[in-house]
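Practice problem 4.
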């Protein structure tokens, strides 16, 4: 593989996975707390995300391949770090897969139910079976799928823009700020811009060109951020106070069923590619770090989120809020502590970031309890 192709695939894999289900909660959150509050969160958390992902990339370059977060934590922090990483990585990825099932199943239902009937559970089951089959086989071409998926994603996004631009009202973008919900965006935005679990995967993908990851990470994180801001402008600008929790439902009233079908394909594409990538990552955590068999790792990865869904965990925003505000924040702290082992001269950066993550964890426990 040429250097250019390897870099393009690496960027598209990381960006394509980050651009996932968190995207669809952002317009609704912006409606609740106001555009300027959300923009402020993006400004702060984006810097944190780029730094943490870059620090993890440095760690990956100094760590033997075929390790994931628990393996990294054992090397740099010892047994307690490994055990903590087991909990946060597994719960974080399981929560993310659950969120993809919730929203992906909803999009699949809205797309096909008018033609074939059936209920939400049936279409969520189809979504689950298709994703689980691809995770089982491993998809060696995941980089190509993410690349072409990202291209199609942008084509559909701009098609929605050109169809709906005449309906965009700038007044819709600036709803009154509800200060009682000021902290609501924290976990949702952190979830939406987080892709640290994919860093070791991207490093392995680059092969002999793995040092390029240090240049790739900032670009791959910034792409989703600009996409998110454009998506907020597009959806909230069109639907205003009719914006739904998963973003796309409110478009039917304005743009009609034809455009809605296109947006639902857009939603399915976005969630499904990330569901596969994160599923493969979690499978490898169980396989490489826990030492489980390959098939058992696949079964736990795929069936546990589905059982949680069947048990009634179907509220989208609380799921990504808790995963982002608690589990991913713990991951961020672990990465910062590990990075401090190889770069103790960066304490002045590492410690304030740890304090912010700790404050976010406390808030998330209080808010969602």
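Answer key:
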């Amino acid at each position: 593989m040429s250097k250019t192709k390897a870099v393009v695939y690496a960027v598209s894999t990381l960006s394509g996975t980050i651009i996932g289900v968190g995207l669809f909660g952002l317009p609704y959150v912006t409606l609740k707390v106001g555009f300027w509050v959300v923009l402020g969160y993006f400004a702060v958390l984006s810097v944190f995300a780029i730094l943490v992902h870059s620090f993890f990339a440095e760690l990956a370059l100094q760590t033997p391949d075929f390790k994931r977060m628990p393996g990294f934590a054992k090397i740099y922090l010892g047994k307690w770090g490994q055990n903590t990483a087991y909990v946060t990585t597994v719960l974080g990825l399981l929560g993310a897969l659950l969120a993809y099932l919730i929203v992906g199943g909803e999009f699949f239902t809205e797309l096909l139910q008018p033609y074939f009937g059936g209920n939400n559970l049936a279409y969520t089951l189809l979504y689950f079976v298709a994703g689980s089959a691809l995770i089982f086989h491993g998809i060696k071409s995941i980089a190509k799928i993410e690349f072409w998926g990202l291209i199609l994603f942008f084509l559909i996004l701009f098609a929605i823009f050109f169809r709906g631009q005449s309906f965009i009202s700038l007044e819709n973008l600036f709803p009154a700020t509800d200060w009682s919900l000021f902290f609501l965006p924290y976990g949702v935005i952190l979830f939406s811009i987080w892709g640290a679990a994919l860093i070791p995967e991207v490093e392995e993908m680059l092969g002999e060109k793995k040092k390029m990851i240090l240049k790739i990470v900032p670009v791959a994180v910034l792409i989703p951020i600009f996409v998110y801001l454009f998506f907020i402008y597009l959806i909230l600008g069109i639907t205003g106070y009719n914006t739904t929790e998963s973003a796309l439902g409110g478009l039917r009233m304005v743009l009609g069923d034809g455009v809605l079908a296109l947006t639902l394909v857009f939603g399915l594409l976005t969630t499904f590619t990330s569901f596969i990538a994160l599923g493969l990552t979690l499978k490898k955590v169980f396989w490489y770090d826990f030492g489980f068999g390959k098939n058992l790792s696949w079964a736990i990865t795929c069936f546990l989120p589905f059982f949680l869904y069947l048990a009634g965990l179907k509220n989208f925003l609380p799921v990504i809020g808790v995963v982002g505000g608690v589990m991913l924040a713990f991951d961020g702290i672990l990465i910062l502590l590990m990075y401090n082992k190889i770069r103790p001269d960066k304490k002045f950066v590492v410690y304030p970031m740890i304090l912010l993550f700790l404050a976010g964890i406390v808030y998330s426990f209080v808010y969602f309890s």
